[in-house]
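User:
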Amino acid sequence: MSIKVTDRDLSPILAAARTWIDRCLVEDASLLADNRGLWTMANADRLQLGFVERPDSGGDDFMTKLERQLSDTGAPAQQLMAEMMWVLLLFPSRIGADVKRSHLMVIWSWSGESLNSTHPMLADTVLCGVGSAGTAYNNLRWKELAYLIALVRSIKAMAMDARRALMSDYDRFMDWIDAVPRDGDRQFRHMLRYFAFPDRVERMSSNRDRISVLEGFQVAPRPQLKRWSDRQLDDALLTLRRREEAQRPGAVLDFYDGTLGPRWRKPEVDEGESAETPTLNAPFPASKAASVAEPAPLALADATSAPVNLILYGPPGTGKTHWLRQKFAEYTDAPSQVDAATWLNETLTNYGWRSVIAAALADMGRPARVPEIRAHRWVQAKAQQRGRAPAGVQATLWGYLQEHTPQTSTTVNISVRRPPFLFDKREAGDWKLLSGWQEQDDESAELWRLLKAGPQAATEAVHRYKVVTFHPSFSYEDFVRGIRPVATAEDGTTQFQLVDGKFKRICDEAHANSGKRYALFIDEINRANIAKVFGELITLIEPDKRAMFDAHGRLVEGMAVQLPGGGDGDVAERPFGVPKNLDIYGTMNTADRSIALLDVALRRRFHFEERAPDYTMLAADVDALDLGRLLRRINDRLEYLLDRDHRIGHAYLMRARTLADVQEAFARQIIPLLQEYFFDDFSRVSLVLSTTAEQPFLQEETLHFGRLFVGQRLDGVPSDRARFVITPSGSWTSESFRGIYDSAGDAGVTG
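Assistant: Predicted structure:
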């Protein structure tokens, strides 16, 4: 699937990976030394005892601790560790080939032998990497290594024939790897799957990108995708790739390149910036293609501008969702442009209180009392982001500090303790971080690293917006706040907790960073029960009701309400209000529900802007077809038979460049949409597509009772019945389509 990409050929890496699989996993030979058997169960057991079962929690760097752990495992096990490190470093592309070679040669040297740096498996073309694995893969290399050891011990317990069958059969492989225990969501399982089956699996080192791609190409919504297994995600991506390849025969397609990347990656540059040529290691900018004329964007001068409440409405295919996506760039800060407040707000959004407390203590560099922790700038920023009054944070801090104290602590007297164990209270009453806390809690260690590096080290764009799609079962609890089951990462159990919805979260983020504009994009806003979703907040979105709070959480302007669960005792929140610097955009498909039926309360509080079919966007000569005239005639017929809300947008024919493209658009999209409009009344569909040409789109046939049944016809049963059959799309000629708008009744009428 991803053997070739736009900037290089990955086949040398995949060939090396296959050699490793065949020689080392299936057989027991060495990869880097001839005539040796390194990949054996005995050597893997030595690494299990020396590395996995003898953790080193000292403060030294990874390589120093690894050398210490392997000091008495013997030369074969040490050389096996070097080759295991070769495997772990084969995928990442953000580590240079020279660095990889150096690591491998150092580890090999612990055995008392030297490694030939010119070995073919150490060539730059092999060690250049497949793609980015992210910083967590490097920071948690010890976990990935422990997982690789577990995989090796599992496969070495099988007979060699069984290993060979396993590594050549995707289904067997998936059954096996799913059964091998792992600590957390290890990335190497995705890398190994790609190395073993590159024609079946995409070159993605985590499911995060898999889910984003499938969501971006509208295969399924993200909440559903998150429940899919690795196998389901692979299957869906394979189907998607085949579909895209069928549309671009012979093209080298990669989901990370400039053709497919913008379909699922969020914009990374502002409208006025020039985008560099994307590489494997760089995020891909938004497409600059100017083939579609965009409406002039609304002016967003600064955070003090009047808030925007806007709903775009119109028939399907008129570019409403595309228009919203173009607006994302206005609420996106490139890494080089993000200011400190916005960066801190965005960074803290992705982490909970436990990690913020640990990072604050690490930043202080000494034990501290709870009031001191509360006064730390990061804790204050988190409180503001969560809509919490400063006085209400102290109880939260006490709760997290005590919960994550080890059972052996004698200064904390609570029964409920849960990992990770990070804190302990000293006899003096102040709190400290335990030694090795970063190894105990990857998430907190990552936050500390990010905050310590500061905004100047930012590598990802900051998105000051959220996107939500309404549906009939969407509720206030989903949108604002509700009790939801939440999985506990430490033990896998599920607890019911009060969870903020996207609207509450984006409002809190906007309040916490009042110097920037934020946005909420609501797709299909008319598909939910608006009164049920917004509840009492429908009043608060009005521009003159927008809220402003002072530093102590007191309302100084606008209106606010107390949300459910937000006014209890010491952890009381400030009242909730919709900030002035939040813009709300929505789209609605009038074919689903007329604007006249939309909730009156919502209609009073939003500006509405219609998106009608734009026939000038369509090609005027596709195999002698004028697509604009064709679509206009179909829409005139639909407006006559139904109403203007059930017209068809220009997007359905935007990509048509050949007659085959037009045939496919009608067969796969337009005719099914007409069936939906007319509730499968094919006589109406036939009327909309009636043509003066000899080859029709639908053929009327007669069903005769006498030819179908034996016996006497019953009363009320007709003797004949007509049915309509869609003719093969390949039979639709250019004359068939022209016959729709060049009909007898079209005399003297121009398109």
